[in-house]
Amino acid sequence: MASAQETATAGPDSSRVNLPLAAAAAAAAAAQRIISFLKQNAHPCVADKIPVVPENVTDQDMFEQCCDLARDNGFLLWEDSKKMRLIVRVEFHQEMREFLRRQR
């Protein structure tokens, strides 16, 4: 049985599926559901404000998703959680950009 760090073969054309990437996508979906829940169930005094969920909450969530994606795929070189900064390998930059675009 393949571990979470191994790459599995899937489909008749033997295309490669990266298991950590799937886990990161699932985590991103879960985070989006939490933020959606917070927006839908906000107290009436807060519900009139824009944004309902403070940007620092959504920014922190996005940062953690980016770190998880890079870490799970072996491209994270350095991170600073307090300042929300990370360094990834150059060959991962395009994938990280695409990930961020999909999140917005």
From TrEMBL:
Subcellular localization: Nucleus
GO BP annotations listed: nucleotide-excision repair
Gene Ontology CC: one annotated term: transcription factor TFIIH core complex
A GO molecular-function annotation: ATPase activator activity
Chief site of localization: nucleus
Keywords: DNA damage, DNA repair, Nucleus, Transcription, Transcription regulation
UniProt keyword DNA damage, yes or no: yes
Segments forming domain Transcription factor Tfb2 C-terminal: 55-101
PANTHER family: GENERAL TRANSCRIPTION FACTOR IIH SUBUNIT 4 (PTHR13152:SF0), TFIIH, POLYPEPTIDE 4 (PTHR13152)
Record-stated family: Belongs to the TFB2 family.
Protein name: Transcription factor Tfb2 C-terminal domain-containing protein
Source species: Brachypodium distachyon
